[in-house]
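note to self — DONT lose this again. spent like an hour looking for the file last time. sequence + predicted structure for the chain T wanted, 82 res
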Amino acid sequence: MMKKYITYILIFGIIGLIFGYFLFGKVAGEYISIKTILSSSTNAFESFGRNISGLTHMKQNILISGGIGGFIGYIIVLIRKK
């Protein structure tokens, strides 16, 4: 039973991440590479540049979309259980 919960949460979480990327991963009409979005800042200047360019906000929105997708997967399992 627990395996079903985890499977649905992971599947819908991944779908949420993909949806979030296509929704929020665009800057100036082009998609930012996934590697750029997921990499972390190595120094203060790079961190400042990420904040100015909006990459941190973009990353946050994409991760929130993944979390919402995982939550929807959990709700679907609960609904199907009844």
